[in-house]
Amino acid sequence: MTTNFPDSFDYQGMNAPMRVECDIYDLIVEGNLPKEINGSWYRTIPDPQYPPLLGHDTYLSGDGMISSFKFENGHVDFKMKYVMTDRLKAERKARRGLFGLYRNPYTDDPSVRGLNRCVNNTTPVFHGGRLLALKEDGLAMEIHPETLDTVGVFNYKGKLKSQTMTAHTRLDPDTGELCFFGYEASGLATRDVSYCVADDEGQLVSEEWFQVPYVSLMHDFAVTKEHVIFPVFPTTADLDRMKAGGTHWVFEPDKDTFIGIMPRDGHVTDMHWFRRPACSAFHFMNAYTEGKFVHLDFGIGKYAPFPFIQQASHIHPTPEDMAFGRVVRWTFDMSKPGEKFEEYNLAPAGDFPRIANKDHMHDYSIGYYQRFDPTAGPPLVAGPVGAGFNTLSRLEVKSGKIKSWHSNKPVTIQEEVHIPSKQPGHEGYLALVADLHDTQLSDVLVFEAEHVDKGPIATIKMPLRLRNQVHGNWVDAEELQ
Ligand SMILES: [Fe+2]
Q: What pTM does this model have?
């Protein structure tokens, strides 16, 4: 290969493509790794096999790479493999990049017209005995949970009609049901959205479709025991713009945000739409229903945070725009007609919210998330937004009390995963990959979730740099069996 990757933050420094498939038995562990941690932590990473066809692209277009940290009785093994998508196979055959702009097939090489261009690089989800690698512009790819070999496209044995499946599914911790949706469900830049439920055995039991007010980047949604919440933020798509060779996404600050809420035991025709001025969010910490109220907790921002979207939208965030960001609670009164709802501040700005799986959809007290704290060091390049988070925080949701940890070295952190403990009253553990900017390597840090401020209890040393994951999930050994 003779072509170099572009000289942009998406491909340089800690973001430089790795393109390494590997298998490491018994990683070096420093500190005290609790022997009760048994299971696999799956992670999906964008890692481009080839430089982009047009000479530039976003980090998010990288070919899906799936990895697993298998924890067993104080030992950790690591495995990493490409998701063998049609797109990757075609590019390997041609020995070059064939795909153009992010999610714009009109900019591709003519030789791949009509080919499935999904990179399946966003979230690994284990459900119904299957491991799925997901990305929201296509269908799931089934992966062998032990070998990480690609099994093939998974569409619930042909039952799923939606052409897309979100990377942010919601698992009901009590019933084992997996709730998910797909936007642009009937094709590129369509307003159709699917809402689907798979039972605890992984069988698709319902699929309903509805239309959103405009085509929106619906990255995540939320589910309570009683309701389903579909936020529609004004990062919008337009088919004519794509046909003209433009970007899939533009942020439109003049458009309102809409929030559709439907009863879980009802239908999409029962959707109640709420509305407020433009804003942006990518990940929801949790949601729950309390009588007539539905609560939704998350980190809000003024604009979509990705530089390639801001650039296409001619948005240049000011310090005031940045100060808009914070963690909020939106409370919707389902008994009132109309479009208004309440907003309350919960905590300082951040993203990558996680909670214990058992707490999903319920009233809860603890959440974990990541922040950029300027007192912990200057911004460092890592991940798709251009600057990585440097601080891990534990939020007491009711009081707003925060405990935090950051490294004293130039370190950015990737999304944390929560690992439950079997000890009664124990809050469990958090694990994350830390980007070590001084050595260009990575460590895996393990924390007692209740005491993140005390720093990691164990460090797993990686002999290589791990590119920033998008998301990861923990699967207990018992569940894998
Ligand atoms: Fe996400």
A: 0.97
